[in-house]
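Marked as duplicate of an earlier ticket. Keeping the data here for the record.
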Amino acid sequence: MQNGFDATMLCALGAVAAQSTDGREIAEKIIALSGPGGPEHDYQQLDRAIADAGAGKDVDFQGVSGPLNLDDDGDVQAGYVNVYRYIDGTLTVERQVEAQG
């Protein structure tokens, strides 16, 4: 679930940084927003992250799953990804995989 949250926050920050709702323009901003270089912001500092992204400043979004650091292809280079499985009708985390960048 945290990976979906992180992806949603990156898309929202990308839209703010691009000042657009166009998917291609948002995608162009997402990689820079996920990686090192700017001040780190997590979900508890979204107000600052949104202000910085909207002002064209560098943002290093730290996801709930950990640092994301997307590469040029948009693949996560850090953090964790949960592998889910339904067990007796309940969605359960089967294991957690660390991203190997």
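See parent ticket for discussion. DSSP finds three helices and five strands in the chain.
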